[in-house]
Amino acid sequence: MKWIKAWDGRRHCILAFSFLSVYILSFLFEGQILYGLLALHGVPSSTYTTLAMAVHFLGLSTSWLYTRSAARARIVMVCGIGAALLAAMPFFFQPSSLWAIGLAVGGYSSGAALAAWGYFLKAYTPRHELLKTCAEILICSNILMVLINALAVHVSPSLGLTVVMLFLAGGLFSAGTLGRAQAQSWTQGENAKKRHLWEAFALLSVFIAVLTINSGLMYQVLNPAFQHLSGLTTWYWPLPYIAALFILRNLSGGVQQSRLLYVGMAMMIGAFLCFMLLGRSHLDYVVVNTLMMGACGVFDLFWWSILAEMMGYTENPSIVLGLGLSSNVLGVLAGGLVGAVARSTQRLTAEVTVMALTVVCFTLALLPVLNRRLTLLLKGHAYLAPDDLREGLGQAAASYQMEPLEPLTSREQEVLATILSGMSNREIADALNITESTVKTHVRNIYSKYGVHSRAELLSGLLKGEGL
Q1: Are residues 360 and 396 in the same domain?
Q2: Given a cut of 70, is residue 182 above it in pLDDT?
Q3: Domain harbouring 81, CATH code
Q4: What was the pLDDT predicted at 183?
């Protein structure tokens, strides 16, 4: 019966996220409902959309301050979704100050609820199912967003808002059921890795924030350039994103997904180059959007699944999820600001492409460093692979290895393997979960058994195949 309760909790966990997320995507966060309502009443959109994202950022980044247990997380989710539901009501009436208040309340409360949801993703999802679960929630949210955007654009923004409020009511019910089943964490016995969490998390946050600057450019530059194709853009815009997530979710275990990050970088570069070189026809839009949204799918699943695993190494998952997602919002806000300036100065082609390529170059330089730090923390993750240089050094050294003067113990063999991979003593201690002083003791014993006095002498002798 325990697995039935766990499955039921996982189902309500996914539904609670999806229903909340569709409100954020279709209304709050550059959503077609908000744009449609603002256009219907002739209200400029820039102030309202910036306000919505800014307070959403605050909700994500501060939720952890008062969300310190699963019980509180459930309360924050219920109250946050309920507040978002109430805050949407003024938009059925004429524009007034209540619209700005509604966006502020809805933006903050939905951000806080989304960060609190991290407790239940951790509790109800087995570690080996995290990547698939992340793909499922993103796919479900975007499919619902397509349907609601179609209603808002082709029927009525008010009808789209009504449907979103119904989804929020469903999310309120699903959030209320969370926490009734006792689910166990999948990170028991791995507390030693917690000290490595924050360094890797800081690098990941920088990576997310910088990379999603291009998403902000997409919202402010790429999408408006094709706004005359509303019939196509309404339904096709997220399809490449959904397709990329579906493909990644179902990849076989033998595929090295770490290489797909570089494919995603190439697709993003191609999207902006095509935007600069091609026209503004239906086919041009399909090419540009397919490349851009496909790349977004690759990267979103990458950092979502990484954040999901990182939550296992902290007692307050809302810190990791909230601050990680706030990095995404921060990048979109920065990219939107740059894009708005570019639009105001009529710099919509070459200059924007150069900005986007600069972002990609920076993230390409950061990616190997990020990969090394994450690999120390999260071994075996689908998107992470050993550093090629270290792996090659280890393989080459192993092929030339001579017999030591005395047999090595099993632990000394493990330490030697990490030395051959190019790790420092601190990295070896991290990888083997032992103290650095213990590593130094093993290293001295290895030197003695090989008759050498330094690491350089050991590596040189092994690589050259010399008798030691």
Answers
A1: no
A2: no
A3: 1.20.1250.20
A4: 46
